[in-house]
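Quick sanity check, Cytochrome P450:
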Amino acid sequence: MWATAGWAAAALVVVSLPRWLPGRVVALRGWVFTRINGDESIPVPGDLVGVDRFREVYSHPAASGRSRGAALSDLFWYWLSPGPEMHQEHLEEGERYDAVALATRRILSVPRARAEELTRRCVTRALRDGQGRDRRGVVRLRDLTMPAWAEFSYELVFGEECPPYARDLIVGNADDVVTSLKCCGLRHMDRRDRLTAYLVESLPRLRDDVRRELPPGLTDRERALYLQGAFFNTAVVQMSEATAHVLMALAQHPEVQDRARGGDDRYLDQVISETLRLYPLFGIAHRITTGEIPLGEGAAIPAGSVLCFDYPSFHRAGFPDPERFDPGRFAPGHTPVRELNHIPFGMPANRPCPAWRLAPLMMRVAVREILGAYRLDSTAAHTRSLPNRGPCLLTPLGAPRGPGHRMTLLFMRFRDDWENLWRSLVQLVLGTYMVWDARRLRLCERHFADLSGDAIRS
Ligand code: HEM
C-alpha cells in the first residue's frame, strides 16, 4: 500500500510540474542574474522613486546616459552584437547619435498610404506558404509575421522588393537576436555576420535618398551595422513581437476579436493600446545618470546611478483591475491617454521610439489583413516575454470548426504547458551562461576604455 501511495505521490508531482516549476525557475534565474551581474540598479518605480515621479525622473535631462558605466550594458551589447556601438539605442548623446537619429527619422518618414500599401503587400505574402497556398492550422504568430516585417524594412531602406535570400538573412538575424534575448537559445554570430556582409555589399544599391542621408563620417561597415541594428534587428523584432501580442490577445478574447473584425479602426487602436499596456515590449529600459537628480527634502539620485524603468509595473499602476484585458479603457470619454500610465513607445523627452507614429499604423493594417482572412484561437500561455512565440490556430473565415478544432486546442494547451516547463530549464542554463559570457567579454566596458585610451593618447 505504501508503494502505491508513493507512486501516486510521484505521479502527482510530475503532473503538477508545469504549474509550479516554471515560476520557481524564473525566480532562480533572477537570483542568478543578480549574483553574476551585480545588484547595481535603482528600480523605478521603487522605494526611492514612486509611480507618481516616474515620468519626471525618466524625463530629467540627467537621466541621459545610455550605455557607459552600467554592467547591464555589457549584457545588452552581447545580445545586440555585432555593432552594438553603432546601434541607435545604445549610442551616447553627441554628434554621432544626432546624425544616426536623424537618418532613422528620415527613413521612417514615409507617407501613410505608402506604409499601408507596403504592409498589406508584405503581410499578404507572409500568409502564403512556399507553394503559394494559404496558411492554416497551428502557427507561431511571431514566426508568421517576422518575414513580413523583414520585407517591409528591406523595401523601406532599399526601395525595391525584398529578394527571398535577403528576407531569410534578415529573419535569421532578428530571430537569433530575440531568441537569445529571451535566453531560449544561444547567439549565433555567423547568422548575424552573414547579414552584415550582405549589407556592406549592398550599400551601393541603397535608395538614393537613403544613401545621401546616412550619417556622415562612417565607414561602410559602420553604415551597415547602423542599418542592421535599427532596421533589420529592432524594427523587425519589435514589430513581430507587437503583432504577435495583439493577435494572441484577440485569439483569447473572441468577443473582442468579433468586434475588431467589424472594421472600426478606432476600436482596433484601443485593442492595440490595451495590448501594449498589458504586454509592453520593453520590460526594463535603463539609463545611467550623468548628473544628480534632486528628489526634494535633501534626497537625490547621485550621478552614475543605473536607473531601471520598469514598464510592466508602471503600466499596471493606476488602472482598476490592471491584469484584465479591456480595450474599453482607451475608449473615447475615458481619461485621456496622455494622463494614463501608458508609454509603450517610451518617454517623449528621453529618446522615445522613432517609430511611435508609424508602428501603430502598420500594426493596424497587418492585424486587419489577418482578421479579414482567419478566425484566431489560442489556448497557449500569453505572457509579456512571449517565449512560446504565440501558438495560434488559424481557421479560414467561414470554414467549419468541428470536433477536431476542439481537440487541436486541447492539445495546444497540453503541449504549451510541457514546453514551458522544458523551456524554463533551458532559459536558466543558457541565460546563466550568456550572463557569464557577457561579463567575461565586457564589450561595452572595453569599448569605452579603448575610447578613453585613444583620447589620452591623442
Ligand atoms: C510596436 C512596435 C514598437 C514598440 C512598442 C517600440 C518601443 C520602443 C520603446 C519603448 C523605446 C524606448 C526605450 C527607452 O527609453 O530606452 C524604443 C526605442 C527605439 N525604437 Fe522602438 N518600438 C517599436 C517599433 C520600432 C520600429 C519599427 C523601429 C524602426 C526603426 C524602432 C526603432 C527604435 C529605435 C532606433 C529606438 C532607440 C531610440 C533612441 O534611443 O534614440 N522601434 N522603442
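Posting the structure with no commentary besides this: The pocket of protoporphyrin IX containing FE is lined by residues 88-89, 101, 104, 230-231, 234-235, 238-239, 242, 276, 281-282, 285, 344-346, 351-355, 359 (CB under 6 Å).
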